Amino acid sequence: xxxxxxAGTRGSTPREVGAFMLxxxxxxxxxxxxxALEWSxxxxxxxxxxxxxxxxxxxxxxxxxxxxCCGGSVTVHFEPVFDLDREVARLEASHESRxxxxxxxxxxxxRALVQSSSLLPLSVRWIDSRxxxxxxxxxxxxACVTDDWEGEIRALRPGDGVVIMTPSHTLDAxxxxxxxxxxxxxxxxxxxSNSKRRRxxxxxxxxxxxQERIDTLVCPIGAHPxxxxxxxxxxxxxxxxxxxxxxxxxxxxxxxxxxTDRVAxxxxxxxxxxxxxxPSATHR
Length: 284
Known about the structure:
By secondary structure, this protein is α/β, with parallel strands linked by helices. It is 38% helix and 18% strand. The chain has ten helices and ten strands. It is elongated and about 70 Å long. Residues 101-242 form the XdhC Rossmann domain. This is Xanthine dehydrogenase accessory protein XdhC. Residues 4-52 form the XdhC- CoxI domain.
């Protein structure tokens, strides 16, 4: 087995440094960007595995000669994987370091949102006290039948995220307040309208939650002028919003410091400004 890794980039490239794929003589997992670049690297990797080429660093220019017009260049390493168990353990550890997203609520929007967010490099925990509401749970998603929302919020790490869409506005308020009081989450989203936000904000201020923390709340979520309230459309818009806030800007299995990097981002203010300018697609 070979690990084919993007070791360096210059200019416009389809993937970032650290992106990789694992290649065997008959299989492949992961991607370094597709197209002619990936096909060439896949072909070279298999020739290396068959003893027909040397495992050395290779530079590729993404220009006309490669039938690509990105215009940049990438340096690729071809690294033998001798210990498969160690490789599997490394991948599992990288998955465990992914940002956690708590989704509270298994209603029609919650089900659609979990389907779309399961495609992101996040660890998704889906919370509801009603065991019959989940339906089909996507691969990799942890469906948790519990009413211990306080324990779930406490267990989050700095830089994780939460989106709240339970059938109870009272429960929505309790969970949202607990998430905001932490002050260290990269995304706190609440389904609802601008009027719901105003009512909740007044309650949060009465509880003594600082205004700067209240301002980080994303509500309405998925705000966009297309005005489409179908669950799948809402889910797509909210998933894109969460990806901006939560997904590390490094490779899929990026640096150990990506939680700190996410906490330092200031994208919430911009998202919130846009939310207040446009009516929500997620009014209830």
